[in-house]
Amino acid sequence: MKRASLQFHPALENLPVYQPGRPIDEVARELGLNSASIIKLASNENPLGPSPRAVAAMRDALASLHLYPDGNAFHLKRKLAASLGVEPANLVLGNGSNEVLELVGHALMAPGTEVVVSEFCFAVYPIVTKLCGAELVTVPAREFGHDLGTMLAAVTPRTRVMFVANPNNPTGTLASAADVSRLIEAMPPHVLLVMDEAYIEFLDAPQDLLPLMRSGDRPNLLFTRTFSKIHGLAGARIGYGIGHPDTIAALEKIRQPFNINSVAQAGALAALDDRAHVEQTRRNNAEGLRFFEREFAGAGIEFIPSSANFILARVGDGARVFEAMQHEGVITRPMGIYKLPAWLRITVGTPAENARCLAALRRALGRG
Fold first, then answer.
1. Which end of the chain has fewer CB atoms < 10 Å from its terminal CB, N or C?
2. What is the CA angle 63-67-71, rounded to 5?
3. Model-level pTM?
4. Options 3.20.20.70, 3.40.640.10, 3.30.70.270, 3.40.50.1110; which CATH number does 52-271 get?
5. Do the beta carbons of residue 219 and residue 187 sit within 8 Å?
6. pLDDT tens digits, one per residue of 99-119
């Protein structure tokens, strides 16, 4: 086969590639398993599925798929803004919150600029940084979480963006409200602080930073959130950013037209009305976390207490344990890509899925 002689962008030479959790059908084909017998606890998806209201609304939207979606998502932005107590001008929608993170890169990053992240950060941050030719400044973690004081000290005149996921993915750690407030107060105005809040809805008492957005006093602050987790719409790909109107206007210039399809818009609109589904998801998650923490403690398995919808467990050889569990039809997430090769990330499932996962893990560790 002839090799391509095209001159690709030099940033692609060493660009890391995002590795998602393995799909059920792929594992079934590879291992000769019945896909119906496989459970996936790898990608922090909602084990209860989407809201029934969202499913019904998305089904109704199918009849108009011959029409382009509302490129400005007028109705969704208005309802989302009302639910958050902000204005539509404070919102930008993305094909998942990942797209919003990429918009930040295109708007602010360039060769010669810097981006500050924590040691164990979401994989998309380094990808976006390197794609845009900026330099990644990685600050060592503190107890697997963000060392916000040291991250702030790493800011230079060349810094353009700092990413802070809170709760953090992949570790599930939560920075204190006091530390977050100090970071926001001290952030130089030339640096955009991106607070990635993909898992904020799983917290019992989340820090409410939205008053800072309502006041309009923080043009260098952006929150990113998603419908993928608490609302169970990962397959619809819809997330959003909350920021100062000037920042949002800059991101809107870069956003692709029609980036949120009509089915996703319909599902998200309906999901916002289904508080019962959100509360049921939160209860299931809290009970699942308590289950894993109790069982891991009893079995002597080290874990990191989590504030998200997943938990990290030290299993020795994460890749080996992942493979062994996969052969039993339980898909988890080895953490080698995050430089945590001894750890396995397990998404909280239903009670039955959690019990099955624990049993498979015990067998993989020789404790079954």
1. N
2. 120
3. 0.95
4. 3.40.640.10
5. no
6. 999 999 999 999 999 999 999
